[in-house]
Amino acid sequence: MKYLSTRGDPQRRSFCEILLEGLAPDGGLYLPERYPQVDAAMLAEWRGLPYAELAWRILSLYIDDIPAADLRAICARTYTAEVFGTPEIVPLKPLEPGLYLESLSNGPTLAFKDMAMQLLGNLFEYELARRGEQLNVLGATSGDTGSAAEYAMRGKQGVRVFMTSPHGRMSPFQQAQMFSLQDENIHNIAIEGVFDDCQDIVKAVSGDLDFKRKYRIGTVNSINWARLLAQVVYYFAGYFEATRSNGERVSFTVPSGNFGNICAGHVARQMGLPIHRLVVATNENDVLDEFFRTGTYRVRAARDTVETSSPSMDISKASNFERFVFDLLGRDGERTRALFGTGLVASGRFDLGADPAFRDCARHYGFASGRSTHADRLAVIRDTWQRFGVVVDPHTADGLKVAREHWQPGGAPMVVLETALPIKFAATIVEALGREPERPARFAGIESRPKRVDVLPADAALVKDYIARHCGAA
Ligand SMILES: *Cc1c(COP(=O)(O)O)cnc(C)c1O
Q1: Domain harbouring 273, CATH code
Q2: Which end of the chain is more exposed for a tag (fewer CB within 10 A), N or C?
Q3: Which of 74, 62, 114 is nearest to 90 (CA)?
Q4: What is the pTM of this model?
């Protein structure tokens, strides 16, 4: 399998060539040349496989430059009951007949990002060892991504992590999760500023190509193809659990921000998994809901991006969205470049509302959407607790609110992806239920553990200096 860029660059690359990359050189995102197709016989064979085996089968369709036995071993040591809490890895929780939560958040950091990041950590270690290279992962986080990356890369050979975060702005639990790591290859940098400052610093450092090359700077952000591919697996697993036979169809609702999670659902559907609807759920930052309702994609300015109680979905633009639009436009790289390149930079928007392709979002690709507000989240958290005795996190609550608008009892089963556990967002749970959410035993007293973090002013030059001082290679 070869990979192409959504912006038309004729060059093709293999999986391991793009594994450690972010954007393609022409500014586009990587996608496989075609989506491998699954047929009834394959689905029948895959139903009932352990998760790690299922992952291996799916990944094998996309990766031909890692020997099969090695890839199988990587999957087997990634998706274990020890790391993800249950032998099923992503068990479904039924709420009522035909409505399920898919538990994606029982990994080390209690958010779904572990599902992909844990695999990425093992793939990075494998590939860097094979090349005899090192990588310094530089990132910016407002919470979930940074901790997932650190827990995936801790103790890994050949990888160091430098994670910037806005000083004092993450929840106490999130800070404790990251800063309590004592591994020598993990560096927490608290920036005196907001999340945007952290992102600007990462851009500035990565944009200094000499520095980037000299210090082997890489990223693990959500546009990484390997992360997206890892997420395809749990759509298959959720499908098998929610159905008895492969003749049935299932819908998924996905609490969405950067369109990474649901883009994996799109890939699964393009492979032939019988998915009925893919429902995009947003919070008040409704860039994506607006597109699927109207055909207008309107990037928000930083000041129009509101801070909500589902903060991991507070985005001004959806960095993976270009992948879907490329498919929607019949994989026209020129048009995709015109929309997402200079056009979007100049005007901050594009409009496909009058384009016949826009109708295909629903008809051919199964997409639907909706939005949710703080009041909706509180109501859903209360209702789900009172009726089913289940506490959901605020992001999952956004999903459940929107899912109910697109699901009828007796219709296609609806699977809502649970993207985090409530303990990560305790303040909102207390506001809704008047009680603290349950805390897994391994996190008891985490806030009082010793913290390993350095505070720096919002200055890219100082961050570069910090990296240079903390990495042996030069
Ligand atoms: C990252 C995240 C999301 C958004 O996922 P995308 O892939 O960016 O759409 C939703 N919920 C939680 C808890 C997250 O951490």
Answers
A1: 3.40.50.1100
A2: C
A3: 114
A4: 0.96
